[in-house]
Automatic annotation (TrEMBL):
Domain Helix-turn-helix: 5-58
Protein name: Excisionase family DNA-binding protein
Top-rank taxon, per record: Bacteria
Segments passing through the bilayer: none
InterPro entries: HTH_17, SinI_DNA-bd
Keyword Transcription in annotation: no
């Protein structure tokens, strides 16, 4: 199945930044070339897999010694 192309608002919702900053965060990622995007005419679209990869790459994992310990 082909990757779905998301608009900037959909990306903001997916990243959880829509309520606080609207489209500003995803647009900053695009401007700084921190996320791959597709130009469709004058529109910017981001592949769903790119958003998922961005989330995965920026996920902070606990250290092995921290597992099972209360905060």
């Amino acid at each position: 199945m082909a990757d779905q192309l998301l608009d900037v608002k959909q990306v903001a919702v997916r990243l959880g930044t829509w309520e606080e900053s609207g489209e500003r965060f995803p647009r900053r990622l695009i401007e700084e070339r921190r996320i791959a995007y597709v130009k469709v005419g004058r529109y910017v679209r981001i592949r769903e897999s790119v958003v998922e990869a961005f989330i995965e790459a920026n996920t902070v994992r606990p250290r092995r010694s921290d597992l099972g310990r209360a905060a």
